[in-house]
Design a protein that fits this description.
mainly beta, Leucine-rich repeat, LRR (right-handed beta-alpha superhelix), Immunoglobulin-like, 3 domains, six-stranded mixed β-sheet, 2 helices, 6% helix
Length: 446
């Protein structure tokens, strides 16, 4: 039997819930007002939304899980930093044409946000603005001039499309570039399969392919000169990267944690392998180091535990800085120019590998470009080099130690006479650096 008391209690509870919904929650944020009613947060007023240094300072923070939609009304000029961070149930956002800036981490962690319309008024979208959101594609209007890291951490994003009228950015197959497509800025982290860069590209920016876990093959077209740090960090399904000889610099950590990358052939213009370039790329089995490389940075091949074959084409052992920690050197064969076996066997860290000599053409540019005579010599060497401008000369012994350059008794354009009478009898390597590349020749001092 239902008592009058139970009925009264039920009606009271219903009334309280109805009143809570009707009156909702409200407050201010800088010059603006906010109201949360029926799971919709509405921001109104005239002016900029404040930036917040920490999420707990956001006035609606305690209600964040109740926010399913956000309506920002005309008059609001900016969306503050961290403003809607971790609104995990947010599914829709309305942004008016008065907003010009979206602050960093504004929608960070809004994992159920699958789409967003950026109005033509927006100029700047700051770093990590949509990190952790579930956006699959985004259209960048002509007004935006600052957006490069806004979608970092959006692992569902497969395409960034830029309006043709935008004067700062462009897109190619969903990848973000500067306007003239000379710099690859950001590849959406959900992009899958193979990708070939346009022929116009000169530089791949820092972290450009960071965390692109579904990419399997990247072909970098000839003309690219720089690959930035962390460029391919944690591309865990990447099996192959084609790097042209035009690349002269590769930043640190560039291929770290590429756990399915099995082999790599480094470009012929590279002179230094940066620290941790291949760190934790545990499936890397073979690497070819070009003759142009003279130094390898700290832990460049850290924990490359599958490494069984290294080919180093430089007759002078590159300087290493604890470059192969956790690599089983006893199980890894190091192939070097046959005339340089002794040098590698006496070089720190290199000597710990299983070293085998191979026949290698040590010319880097035209073999006929440099004439050295007499060779063997008892003291004087003459150089005749055609069509190249010499910038440096170095002499190394078979142990890779640089030797003091002797007296240059004559130099005119590309003809040099060098006195090496001070050197002991034996085999040496002379390296001529030009603007077009390097030439390495073996000389014999009698």
């Amino acid at each position: 039997m239902i008592t009058m008391k139970r009925i009264t209690t039920t009606l009271l509870i219903a009334t309280v819930l109805s009143m809570a919904s009707a009156f909702a929650q409200s407050g201010s944020t800088g010059p603006l007002k906010w109201v949360l009613r029926n799971n919709t947060l509405t921001i109104s007023g005239d002016g900029d939304m404040p930036d917040y240094a920490q999420a707990i300072s956001v006035p609606w923070w305690q209600y964040k899980e109740s926010i399913h939609s956000i309506v920002i009304e005309i008059g609001v000029k900016s969306i503050g930093e961290i403003a809607f961070s971790n609104c995990v149930n947010l599914t829709s956002v309305t942004i008016p044409n008065t907003v010009t800036r979206i602050g960093s981490m504004a929608f960070n962690g809004c994992k159920n946000l699958t789409s967003i319309n950026i109005p033509i008024s927006v100029i700047s979208i700051k770093d990590f603005a949509f990190s952790g959101s579930s956006l699959s594609s985004i259209n960048i209007p002509r007004s935006v001039t600052d957006i490069e890291r806004a979608f970092f951490g959006c692992h569902s994003l497969i395409s960034i499309d830029v309006e043709d009228e935008n004067n700062t950015y462009a897109s190619d197959q969903g990848v973000l570039y500067n306007k003239d497509k000379t710099t690859l800025l950001f590849c959406p982290q959900g992009k899958a399969g193979a990708y070939v860069t346009p022929n116009s590209v000169i530089s791949i920016k820092n972290e450009a392919f960071y965390g692109c876990r579904n990419l399997t093959l990247v072909t970098i077209t000839n003309g690219v000169t720089n690959i930035g740090y962390n460029a391919f960090f944690s591309c865990t399904n990447l099996t192959s990267v084609a790097i042209p000889n035009s690349v002269a610099t590769i930043g640190s950590h560039a291929f770290s944690m590429c756990s399915n990358l099995a082999s790599i052939h480094l470009p012929g213009n590279l002179t230094h392998i940066a620290p941790l370039t291949f760190g934790l790329s545990t499936n890397l089995a073979s690497v070819t180091i070009p003759r142009s490389v003279t130094s390898i940075g700290f832990a460049a091949f850290h924990a490359c535990t599958s490494l069984t074959s290294i080919t180093s084409l430089n007759p002078v052992p590159p300087i290493v800085d604890v470059s192969f920690p956790e690599v089983d050197k006893n199980a890894c064969t190091l192939y070097v120019p046959i005339e340089s076996v002794l040098a590698y066997k006496n070089a720190d860290e290199w000597k710990e590998f299983n070293i085998q000599g191979i026949e290698v053409d040590i010319e880097i540019i035209d073999a006929d470009a440099l004439k050295i005579y007499p060779n063997p010599t008892t003291g004087e060497l003459q150089f005749a080099i055609s069509d190249y401008s010499i910038s440096n000369i170095e002499i190394f012994d078979v142990y890779g130690r640089i030797q003091k350059i002797g007296h240059i008794s004559y130099i005119e354009k590309s003809h040099i006479v060098l006195d090496i009478a001070h050197l002991q009898t034996g085999i040496y390597f002379i390296k001529i650096t030009t603007k077009q590349g390097e030439i390495i020749k073996k000389i014999i001092k009698q």
